[in-house]
Specification:
Elements (H helix, E strand, L loop, with lengths): L8 H27 L6 H8 L3 H7 L3 H23 L9 H18 L1 H12 L7 H25 L5 H28 L5 H22 L1
Helix pairs in contact: 1-2, 1-4, 1-6, 4-5, 4-7, 5-7, 5-9, 7-8, 8-9
Length: 218
């Protein structure tokens, strides 16, 4: 039998370091999404993970640096999930049908990205991220990418109207779609009793009607 050599000490250390960094990011996302940035102390995170405070400062120079890393990781995961969910869009169908396809899958991503979206909205509505400029830049970038992604979904849904018209509709309605998506997330979190897919269907209905009105207006 082939002898298995033990891992070198530095390899074991690197693996432990990567694991502890991941544990810190996951715990910070959980706690900050509930308490907010200002309400999350290093002591609370140490208790959540069972890691000493020194481990936090080994990986992140400050709490602001930790928030920046949490937001960056969450943003990558969220948009990767969006791209995967929309990987094979339907080739045909009406704009309304295509919008429903896109937005129902966007709703699925919402449900799976709950912690990230909750923290994102807390940072958008408060001034907490001002203490962490890098995180604030990530928040702004995520909002910009979100609008661009909404414009892409709407444009793709109205492709049968022609490229120029579809682009016009996408740019005009992307901010409204973002507002509807945000509102649906808040409603699901605070009210309950109505599924994400029901909200997404209603949002698709509204965007389809507004897009049709833009086409009719020429």
């Amino acid at each position: 039998m082939e002898k298995i050599e033990p891992l070198a000490p530095e390899t074991r250390t690197n693996r432990r370091g990567r694991r502890s960094r991941q544990e810190i990011l996951e715990a910070a996302a959980r706690v900050m999404s509930v308490r907010g940035y200002a309400g999350t102390s290093m002591s609370a995170l140490a208790k959540e993970t069972g890691l000493p405070k020194s481990a936090f400062y080994h990986h992140f120079e400050s709490k602001a640096g930790l928030l920046s890393a949490v937001m960056e990781k969450g943003a990558h995961g969220f948009f990767d999930a969006m791209r995967e969910a929309h990987r094979d869009p339907p080739a045909g169908g009406t704009p309304h049908e295509r919008l429903r396809w896109y937005l129902r899958r966007t709703g699925d991503v919402m449900e799976n990205g709950e912690e990230f979206l909750r923290l994102l909205l807390v940072l958008v509505m408060s001034r907490e991220a001002a203490e962490a400029p890098e995180a604030l830049q990530t928040v702004i970038a995520v909002r910009d990418e979100g609008r661009d992604y909404m414009a892409h979904m709407i444009r793709s849904s109205f492709q049968s109207a022609g490229e120029e018209t579809a682009e016009k509709i996408g740019q005009a309605l992307a901010p409204f779609a973002m507002a509807g998506y945000d509102g649906a997330f808040v409603a699901v979190q605070s009210e309950g009793g109505r599924s994400v897919s029901a909200w997404m269907d209603q949002l698709a209905d509204s965007i389809a009607a507004l897009g049709a009105a833009i086409i009719a207006a020429g």
